[in-house]
Write a structure and sequence with these properties.
Number of strands: 8
CATH class: Alpha Beta
Mean pLDDT: 95
Radius of gyration: 15 Å
Low-confidence stretches: none
Order of helices and strands: EHEEHEHEEEHEH
CATH superfamily: Isochorismatase-like
Strand order of the largest sheet: 3-2-1-4-5-8
Number of domains: 1
Number of helices: 5
CATH topology: Rossmann fold
Helix content: 25-40%
Largest sheet: 6 strands, parallel
CATH architecture: 3-Layer(aba) Sandwich
Structural class: alpha/beta
Length: 189
């Protein structure tokens, strides 16, 4: 993957994601990792896409008209950066993202954000299925603890690890921020 021509996708980095109601999460440094990638993409003039979830559920942390739907200040888009809104987990569904990427001859995406097993995984699967070379930056993604289908409580680390395992080699190249930056000739400070 030549990440120099890849679009950086930042998924659902909104204020509502910090709601205590969501429970314990993994990768507390994920936002700083995303910010480091964002700074490099900006400095290099590479394509950046911010994805904002606007929920149809009025009880959601991402319900429209509430502070939770707003971007986190650290990761807010600049006026020239593209923003796509979604109402489902997959950033490609009914958003125009695929068309936007094709119109710019972008055939690679680097995915960051939340939640690992929801919007990140769904978006990565679709990106791959649509023919985009797909990279998921695992330590620039995170999720929350949840109970599995059989009723067993799973930590955020376990949920995240399974999501990354689901994606690795089948749908995406999964790597750390340091690995991605090293491949681009940068180091993580």
């Amino acid at each position: 993957m030549n990440n120099r021509s890849a679009a950086l996708l930042i998924i659902d980095q909104q204020q509502g994601i910090h709601s205590p109601a969501l429970g314990p999460r993994n990768h507390p440094e994920a936002e700083q990792r995303i910010a480091a990638l964002l700074a490099i993409w900006r400095k290099q003039g590479w394509p950046i896409v911010h994805v904002r979830h606007i929920s149809r559920n009025p009880q959601s942390v991402f319900a429209p008209g509430q502070p939770g739907a707003e971007f986190q200040p650290l990761l807010s888009p600049l006026p020239q950066e593209m923003v796509f809104e979604k109402n489902v987990t997959d950033a490609f569904i009914h958003s125009g993202l695929e068309r936007w990427l094709h119109a710019r001859a972008i055939n690679q995406v680097v995915i960051t954000g939340v939640a690992s097993e929801n919007s990140v995984e769904a978006t990565a699967r679709t990106a791959s299925n649509l023919g985009f070379a797909t990279c998921v930056v695992e330590d620039a993604c995170y999720t929350f603890a949840k109970t599995d289908f059989y009723g067993t409580p799973r930590s955020a680390k376990e949920v995240h690890a399974m999501a990354m395992s689901n994606l690795q080699q089948e749908y995406a190249e999964v790597m750390t921020t340091a690995q991605l930056l090293s491949g681009l000739g940068f180091t993580l400070s």
